[in-house]
């Protein structure tokens, strides 16, 4: 579904032509009918999926007596527990999820989102109070953006592209938003976007809007609460039940469902639980496994997936992704999002979706987030180093080395040194003030950044160092690092940009359910002496099925790195950033040196290069107003080395 909404708190009429333009921009493949609710100064539209793609409950609920209107996109989980908390009678089975959100708001007011589980965004409009509440789920799976125009109208949409193609304004860059994306992957200020007029509602936040103010409030955080509690056996049982509940909530109502299955523990555990639930008689659809692979052995997990599926006599569908095709269609994808593309998995997901849609699949279950939720820096090696227990810390690193199939020395930065950084923030803060005009702004992170941004970046870093230090002081070092990594993931990977258009197929990540996150955060405090993901998931699976995945971890970045390098060596003008140079965000000489080092193999900064190219694509689309056409795709597809109109000055 896709929300398009507009509210004028001063009572002025809504321009429905602009709203319809927003709705049209948000329609994805597989979309069906649109629900609408209008009054003179408030208008809401929700475009529904096709009838066979999930529930047909109404997305809009209006209560005439209270003057409240609820607009819900997504799914509300744990309905039985919610009905019990709301004292809803057993016979009231006809209540839609939107109606349950209405009852939750009546019971808990602006805090109601803290009591709701699921992947959702919802809006609650009070015509009597002239107030609008917007809420986003705790993991940010469902996106929501907003902007306020000069006439006082607040425009809200499920995609940034809807706002950029709807309300009339000239997009201008937000320097802090661009720096946040390039330097911090957008996790420092998730409410900002590269466009100054478009704001993002962060995950686990509510926006309370009225004629007086726009106010953001965070209703849940991984930093809330204390780790610990019951004994390990009880906590593992709670993790098991949480995963089972989230799978059940997501699979119910779908006749055919797929799973993006790798050879590792995260998706493998979900698949095994799924099959076990079917074995014990639960009426769930059969899993339809799928996977993609590149031409490199490190990224080819077909044999691992086949070994997992063999006992069940199930075959997977595989899609091959060509390394050199990584940039084809990127400009259209960025245009469809209205945002730069932070990750480069959109082509793989789109290929999977097209394949599964032809087989009647309406849902894809993914293992996304499992490695962060289940194994995010659980070991207390940092505390051992701080306590001068160096031998114990080294042993911990060897446990991780065996778990991840990586040399132990490569784990010191993420699991020993970085957890100690909070103690250094005051010194870093003072240093940032001194070097704002003397050192390179990126500190080596982004060697193509314009040096004139040094002062701006130093001030920005110093400001946010205070928040990081305050969070660090609330937790032990290893506990802080665990939660910090998970918090970064929840604020970055899912929340920052919508998933690509997937032919009407819904994506869902059970590990990102708040019930799973909270149970794992409690259980993981016990997992300090052995490989954490294997130990926890092995115990979970020992209670369900003997079929277990292998513990492999594949490096998927090499294919993209080699693909980018091949196109760079062929002179692809995709890398000739011009708009960012004009904006003084990128320095031309530094960019030339950076690309030369990348092509020669002196550095392996494929992630930074991808962010640069994607940011340039966005700048051309929305700041210059260059709309992509099929001719750009054709040009790249016919010959990588031929000039492309899209990235030429």
Topology, element by element:
Blueprint: E1 2-8, H1 16-26, E2 31-39, E3 42-49, E4 60-63, E5 68-77, H2 79-85, H3 97-108, E6 117-126, E7 131-136, E8 145-148, E9 153-157, H4 160-165, H5 175-184, E10 199-200, E11 205-209, E12 214-218, H6 232-251, E13 257-260, H7 265-279, E14 287-293, H8 302-309, E15 317-320, H9 330-337, H10 346-357, E16 363-365, H11 370-375, H12 381-386, H13 390-404, H14 412-420, H15 425-434, H16 454-473, H17 477-492, E17 506-508, H18 514-523, H19 532-542, H20 557-569, H21 579-582, H22 588-600, H23 606-623, H24 630-638
Parallel strand pairs: 13-14, 13-16, 14-15, 16-17
Antiparallel strand pairs: 1-3, 1-9, 2-3, 4-5, 5-6, 6-7, 7-11, 8-9, 8-10, 11-12
Describe this structure in words.
41% of the residues lie in helices and 15% in strands. The protein has 649 residues and is an alpha+beta fold. The strands form three sheets. The chain has a six-stranded antiparallel beta sheet. The protein has a six-stranded antiparallel beta sheet with strand order 4-5-6-7-11-12. It has a five-stranded parallel beta sheet with strand order 15-14-13-16-17, sandwiched between helices.
Could you give the order of strands across the largest sheet? 2-3-1-9-8-10
Low-confidence stretches: 376-380, 432-444, 475-482, 525-533, 631-649
State the distance separating the first and last CA atoms: 38 Å
Percentage of residues assigned to helices: 40-55%
Task: Spell out the key features of this protein.
single chain, alpha+beta, 6-stranded antiparallel beta sheet, 17 strands, 41% helix, disordered C terminus
């Amino acid at each position: 579904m896709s929300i398009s909404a507009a509210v004028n708190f001063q009572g002025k009429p809504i321009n429905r032509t602009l709203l319809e333009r927003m709705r049209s921009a948000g329609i994805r493949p597989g979309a069906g009918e649109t629900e609408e609710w209008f009054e003179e100064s408030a208008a809401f539209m929700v475009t529904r999926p096709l009838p066979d793609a999930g529930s047909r409950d109404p997305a809009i609920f209006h209560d005439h007596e209270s003057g409240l209107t609820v607009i819900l996109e997504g799914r509300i989980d744990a309905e039985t527990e919610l009905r019990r908390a709301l004292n809803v009678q057993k016979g009231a089975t006809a209540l839609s999820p939107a109606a349950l959100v209405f009852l939750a708001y009546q019971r808990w007011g602006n805090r109601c989102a803290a009591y709701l589980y699921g992947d959702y965004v919802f809006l609650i409009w009070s015509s009597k109070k002239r107030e609008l509440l917007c809420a986003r789920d705790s993991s940010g799976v469902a996106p929501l953006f907003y902007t306020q125009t000069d006439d006082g109208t607040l425009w809200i949409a499920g995609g940034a592209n809807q706002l950029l193609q709807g309300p009339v304004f000239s997009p201008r860059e937000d320097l802090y938003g661009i720096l946040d994306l390039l330097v911090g992957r957008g996790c420092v200020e998730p409410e900002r976007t590269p466009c100054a007029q478009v704001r993002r509602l962060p995950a686990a936040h509510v926006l309370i809007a009225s004629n007086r103010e726009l106010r953001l409030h965070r209703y849940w955080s991984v930093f809330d609460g204390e780790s610990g509690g019951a004994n390990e056996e009880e906590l593992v049982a709670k993790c098991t039940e949480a995963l089972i509940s989230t799978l059940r909530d997501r699979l119910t109502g779908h006749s055919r469902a797929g799973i993006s299955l790798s050879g590792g523990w995260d998706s493998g555990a979900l698949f095994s639980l799924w099959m076990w639930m079917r074995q014990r008689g639960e009426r769930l659809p059969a899993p339809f496994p799928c996977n993609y692979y590149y031409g490199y052995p490190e990224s080819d997990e077909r044999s691992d997936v086949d070994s997992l599926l063999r006992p069940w006599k199930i075959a997977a569908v595989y899609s091959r992704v060509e390394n050199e095709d990584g940039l084809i269609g990127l400009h259209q994808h960025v245009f469809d999002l209205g945002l730069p593309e932070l990750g480069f998995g959109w082509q793989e997901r789109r290929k999977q979706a097209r394949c599964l849609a032809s087989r009647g699949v309406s849902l894809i279950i993914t293992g996304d987030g499992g490695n962060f939720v289940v194994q995010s820096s659980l070991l207390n090696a940092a505390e051992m180093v701080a306590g001068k227990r160096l031998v114990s810390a080294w042993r911990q690193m060897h446990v991780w080395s065996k778990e991840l199939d990586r040399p132990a020395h490569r784990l010191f930065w993420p699991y020993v040194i970085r957890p100690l950084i909070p103690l250094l923030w005051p010194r870093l803060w003072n240093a940032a003030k001194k070097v704002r005009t003397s050192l390179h702004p990126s500190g080596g992170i982004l060697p193509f950044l314009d040096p004139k941004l040094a002062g701006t970046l130093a001030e920005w870093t110093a400001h946010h160092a205070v928040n990081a230090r305050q969070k660090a002081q609330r937790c032990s070092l290893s506990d802080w690092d665990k939660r910090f990594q998970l918090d970064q993931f929840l604020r970055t990977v899912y929340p920052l940009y919508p998933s690509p258009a997937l032919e009407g197929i819904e994506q869902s990540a059970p590990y990102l359910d708040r019930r799973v996150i909270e149970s794992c955060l409690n259980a993981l405090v016990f997992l300090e002496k052995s490989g954490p993901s294997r130990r926890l998931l092995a115990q979970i699976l020992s209670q369900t099925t003997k079929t277990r995945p292998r513990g492999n971890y594949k490096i998927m970045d090499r294919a993209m790195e080699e693909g980018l390098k091949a196109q760079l060596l062929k002179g692809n003008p995709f890398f000739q950033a011009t708009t960012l140079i004009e904006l003084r965000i990128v320095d031309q000489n530094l960019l030339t040196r950076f690309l030369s080092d990348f092509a020669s193999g002196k550095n392996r900064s494929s992630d930074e290069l991808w962010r640069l190219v994607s940011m340039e694509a966005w700048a051309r689309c929305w700041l210059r107003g260059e709309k992509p056409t099929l001719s750009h795709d054709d040009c790249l597809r016919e010959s990588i080395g031929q000039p492309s109109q899209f990235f030429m000055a």
